[in-house]
Amino acid sequence: MNTPHLPVLHDAVLELLDPKPGESYFDGTAGYGGHAASVLERIGKGRATLVDRDPDASRHVKQRFGDRVRPIQSDYVTATTDALEAGERYDMILLDLGVSSPQLDRPERGFSFRFDGPLDICRAPAYQAAARIRRDPVKSCRSAPRPQEHRWWR
Fold first, then answer.
1. pLDDT at 54
2. In a shared domain, residues 43 and 72
3. What is the distance of C-alpha 146 from the center of its chain?
4. Cα 18 to Cα 11: distance, rounded to the nearest angstrom
5. Residue 26 contacts residue 5 (beta carbons within 8 Å)
6. How many domains does the chain have?
7. Could you tell me if 24 and 48 are in contact, meaning their C-beta atoms sit under 8 angstroms apart?
8. Angstrom distance (rounded) from CA 66 to CA 151
9. pTM (2 decimals)?
10. pLDDT tens string 21-73
């Protein structure tokens, strides 16, 4: 199965991660598995957890890699919190904070600047209904109450 998205910084990411046989890999923004495919080649039987909020992407990596990976449909904050609470540790962690070609190419996803469509920019369709309620998403964002500040350090 071919991936519909090729990561722009693929080679640079692999150079920095420098995956080795037997190592473990956590991809908090797995998307369609572009980075994961190359990491899996290098880690052999090492374990890999692939997280993505997008249900289409999660289904894709599950079909593409099968039992070689543990796919999780979630946001990366929840998934990393769950992993820490479960005592899981990884040799490599990747967060590729961007959008993918399938999100840009499908106007109904709300990311496209090439095609007419809604301005939802939601990673998961479950959030799209709430986003569509807003008539002016930019104005709504400006007037929305600020979330409570979280401190991850002391």
1. 85
2. yes
3. 24
4. 10
5. no
6. 2
7. yes
8. 37
9. 0.69
10. 999 999 999 988 999 999 999 999 999 999 998 888 899 999 999 999 999 99
The answer to whether residues 90 and 118 belong to one domain is no
pLDDT given for residue 80 in this prediction: 92
What CATH number does the domain containing 18 carry? 3.40.50.150
Model pLDDT, residue 90: 96
Give Dmax over CA atoms of the chain in angstroms: 51
What domain range is 24 assigned to? Answer: 10-97
Which residues does 71 contact at the CB level (< 8 Å), separation at least 6?
30, 50, 51, 52, 58, 61, 62, 65
Indicate if 44 and 66 belong to the same structural domain: yes
**Tell me: the pLDDT tens digits for 76-125?**
899 999 999 999 999 999 998 766 666 666 666 666 667 676 666 555 55
* Interatomic CA distance for residues 133 and 112, integer angstroms: 19
Q: Is 91 exposed, middle or buried (0-12, 13-18, 19+ CB in 10 A)?
A: middle
The predicted pLDDT at position 116 comes to 72
> With 0-12 CB in 10 A as exposed, 13-18 as middle and 19+ as buried, what is 4?
middle
Dist. CA 106–CA 100, nearest whole Å: 10
Residues 62 and 93 in one domain: yes
End-to-end CA distance of the chain: 46
